[in-house]
Amino acid sequence: DALPICPDNRYVSVVHYDKLILASTDGSIHHAIDVNIDSCDECQPQWSTNGQWLTYMTDSGTSTNTSLEAWKVYAQTGQATKLNVQNPVSLIASPDASTIAVVTTDQANRYSLQLVTDRQTVTVSSDLEYQGQNYQVFEPLWSSDGTLLAFITDSFNNQFALHLIKADGTEVYQVPLPSLGRDPLKWVPCI
């Protein structure tokens, strides 16, 4: 996998020996943050489109709780802020960098999708159900203009559905797609 590089090419991030390192492309290390995870795959560092901050996941670091936590770190200052979500599975920032979509799960393997801004966390879907069954949520995808978010759910027995929501978490639409499979979503412009 390629290293996550800031959109303006000023910084690169890498996980090395339980540290998330933000390095300048001139070769200097700006910040080294303890993440309690030793690979980029688990940490999932992702830059905002404006290059001002990076989201990542880290182990909670307690012996009684081994769940992950979601964090946002500002590149210039190194200030890290914990996002108000429990047990994140994946993170993706909106194109305008105003909102982070976070897929979470609980110990009963129930998934939800939460939208996190600097001011609030909105749970868009909790205990997602379709035809009475819990669903796994696959990687959400923002539209290029950031007004819509799409994600696929799977009921663990290959009953798929496509969900579309507005960026503020309202108007959740659900369309059954039994033959969709686990192919990744992709926005395609209409001609």
- Major pleated sheet: 5 strands, antiparallel
SS element count, helices: 1
Q: Bin the helical content.
A: under 10%
Residue runs with pLDDT of under 50 for 5 or more positions? none
What is the alpha-carbon Rg in Å? Answer: 17 Å
List the secondary-structure elements in sequence, H or E: EEEHEEEEEEEEEEEEEEE
**Overall average residue pLDDT:** 75
Say how many strands there are: 18
Q: How much strand content do the residues show? A: over 45%
Q: State the distance separating the first and last CA atoms.
A: 33 Å
Structural overview:
By secondary structure, the protein is mainly β. It contains 1 helix and 18 strands. The strands form 5 sheets. Strands 14, 15, 16, 17 and 18 form a 5-stranded antiparallel β-sheet that branches. A hairpin with a 5-residue loop joins strand 16 (148-154) and strand 17. The longest helix has 4 residues, at 40-43.
